[in-house]
Amino acid sequence: MKRKLFIVGTFIALIALIGVFYQQGRTPDQQSKPGAASIVMKSSPFAEAKAFPPGVPVLMYHSIGEEPNNDAVISKERFVEQMKYLHESGYHPVSLDDLHDYLALKKELPLKPVVITFDDGYRDTYEIAMPVLKQYGFRSVLFFPVGKDGGRLSWAELREMKASGMEIASHSYNHRSMDGLSRAEQAQEIQNSKKTLDQNLNQNTRWFCYPNGRYGPETLELLKANGFTVAVTTEPGWVKPGDHPLTLRRIWMGNSVDLKHFEERLTREKYSIL
């Protein structure tokens, strides 16, 4: 009888012990291994820390190539170096929609946010920039004037770029300075550009870049009336809380921006103007 009671008691104790382990979310094997609890409680590797930054640098690239005396161009070597720096330093390229929500809705962004933009749609944006950006999984933006430069890139290439993580945004239709046009001409530039991009890329285009950085009060009214939520200028500086989402600053990137000055542009709002 004593032996039976001992067996029953041992069985009950074992059941109770197993219940404790399951209540803590661990098996007996995990309980016995050093560090097992930290493995179970560890957050998902896909979880991304966020914060509300005091400002966001928006980088403005044009062409990538070998024209050392043209500061609208940056060498391939320097561009690759800069993207590698962003990756190794923990920067997180975000979309223009993310930037809009940061400004308008005060939403947090990933730590060390940055926006990477390209103007005009040069062949090298497709041939050089896109493969490098894909290598790091970086988001980016191409501002494309579909009427003026439609022959530079095909719609198939633009769709490939979009699929790789590059937003294809409006740079007007014919790349004409908006402040030199009538209200009707500005409306035509904006509407034709949006319609063409929407139809060919199956999207709702709501991002704009002013050709030559030029615009007026009517331009802002027309963009808003046509559903645009973000527009960028060529004015230097960071994007900061309180900025108008249709007049956002950007940071010029060209041959003169070596790695030292690149780092400065990412870490100092009042960076050196070269």
Would you give an account of this structure?
The protein is α/β, with parallel strands linked by helices and 274 residues long. It folds into two domains: 2-41, no CATH class; 50-267, TIM Barrel, CATH 3.20.20. The protein has ten helices and twelve strands. The strands form three sheets. Strands 2, 5, 7, 8, 9, 10, 11 and 12 form an eight-stranded parallel β-sheet that branches. Mean pLDDT is 86; it is low at 1-47.
Q: Can you tag this structure with a few keywords?
A:
single chain; 274 residues; TIM Barrel; 2 domains; two-stranded antiparallel ribbon; 42% helix
Tally the helices: what do you get? 10
Q: Architecture of the largest domain, according to CATH?
A: Alpha-Beta Barrel
Instruction: Look at the structure and give the mean pLDDT.
Output: 86
Rg of Cα set: 26 Å
Low-pLDDT ranges = 1-47
CATH hierarchy, class of the largest domain = Alpha Beta
Residue fraction in strands: 15-25%
Structural class: alpha/beta
**CATH superfamily heading of the largest domain:** Glycoside hydrolase/deacetylase
SSE order and pairing:
Blueprint (H helix, E strand, L loop, with lengths): L1 H22 L4 H5 L3 H6 L8 E2 L6 E4 L1 E2 L8 E2 L1 H13 L3 E2 L2 H9 L4 E2 L2 E7 L3 H14 L3 E5 L10 H9 L2 E5 L12 H19 L5 E3 L7 H9 L4 E7 L11 E5 L6 H9 L7
Parallel strand pairs: 2-7, 2-12, 3-4, 5-7, 7-8, 8-9, 10-11, 11-12
Antiparallel strand pairs: 1-6
Helix pairs in contact: 4-6, 8-9
